[in-house]
Amino acid sequence: SGFPHGQAVESVLLSHSDLSDADVQRMQNMPAQARVDDIMRDNKVGFRQAYGAAVLRNVAKFYLSTAQNLQTIVTEQPTVKVISQSQGETSARLTGDLLDDLREKEHIRRHANETFGLPADAPLPELLEKMVQEADTVLADNELVAQARQQYMKAAQGVQDKGVVYLVAGGNHGDLAYQLEHMGVKTSSSAFRSIFATEYATVVGANTADGAVSTLNSPASGSEAYERGEDLPWKAEEGFDQSGVHSGTSFATPIVAGKVLKMLDGNPALTPFDIESKLQGLDSTKVGNGQIKATS
User: Fold this and answer.
1) CB 268, CB 79: distance < 8 Å
2) Which among 84, 88, 87 has a CA at the least distance from the CA of 13?
3) Is 154 helix (H, G, I), strand (E, B) or coil?
4) How far is CA 280 from the centre of its chain?
5) What is the pLDDT of residues 216-272, one digit of tens each?
6) Helix extents (H) in 18-105
7) Residues 112, 127: contact at Cβ < 8 Å?
8) In the chain, what percentage of residues exceed pLDDT 90?
9) What are the φ and ψ backbone dihedral angles of 17, each rounded to 5 degrees?
10) Strand runs labelled E in the chain
11) How far apart are CA 183 and CA 124, in angstroms?
């Protein structure tokens, strides 16, 4: 039940490339999400502690599951040329997931305020700002997250070393960013950047059907290549029997993957750096030996 994201993304890839089902393998990358209310109930802790634990668990598990899949591809599937990753995570999204409950349920907001050291009746923007800062801190300073990130970075570097092009979706948090900004919530420059944005990957953003940069893109995402990501039709079979039209960098990324495969078919000697340069409209022979990085 629900939206079959993986199948929808794959259908967009197939409809925008010359690939067949046999050419594509879909791997589930996102583990089950830890929920703040479950952690509060099961561990009898307050909102802030449960929120920090949820951020830690979700980010660390996502890093580790991604690292495992990348390692599997490199070691067991030597013919793979392009990896298209349409899932991601950011510190701001982890806050945004709780926005409706905090806005609509006063008792939850009052309790959350108190656990963050705020007056019980503190306005929602103050709490949200504290929560984004808390998530940023977990991502930046927690030892378990750092260890998981290191494993991911090692795996991503291994992908690049094998000459495989690694594409990651930049994220669709433009609307959330607008909401928070409109509320007066200040966020860091990295709050909306995918945890998978790295020098070993090319970050993909979404354009409108007219070729303009879409407002759905996450701000400061570090996107290096853009492709249509709005109003794309998809169809999911495999027991789902669903179809529809969706938008997102999740759908722009597989379209870029199809273009990359055509580039490689025309010139198999192209490196991931060459490909990234071409996607940006640059001549890699003029850029030099430095890497174009997705993060600053």
Assistant:
1) no
2) 84
3) helix
4) 20
5) 999 999 999 999 999 999 988 777 778 899 999 999 999 999 999 999 999 999 999
6) 36-43, 47-76, 91-96, 99-104
7) yes
8) 73
9) -155, 180
10) 82-85, 165-169, 202-207, 225-228, 232-236, 242-246
11) 9
Confidence (pTM): 0.89
The amino acid present at 74, given as its one-letter code, is V
Taking the CA atoms of the chain, what radius of gyration do you get in angstroms?
A: 20
User: What six digits make up the tokens of 200?
Assistant: 């070993």
Distances from the Cα of 55 to the Cα of 50, 91, 97, 292, angstroms: 9, 8, 11, 29
Q: Do residues 198 and 294 touch, judged by C-beta distance below 8 A?
A: yes
Indicate if the alpha-carbon torsion angle 2, 148, 296, 188 is positive or negative.
Answer: positive
Both structure tokens of 87: 């899932």
- Contacts of the segment 110-115: beta carbons below 8 A, 24+ positions apart: 111/46, 111/47, 112/47, 112/48, 112/51, 114/46, 115/46, 115/47, 115/48, 115/49
Strands 232-236, 242-246: pairing is antiparallel
User: In the prediction, which pLDDT does 294 show?
Assistant: 31
Tokens of 84: 């298209």
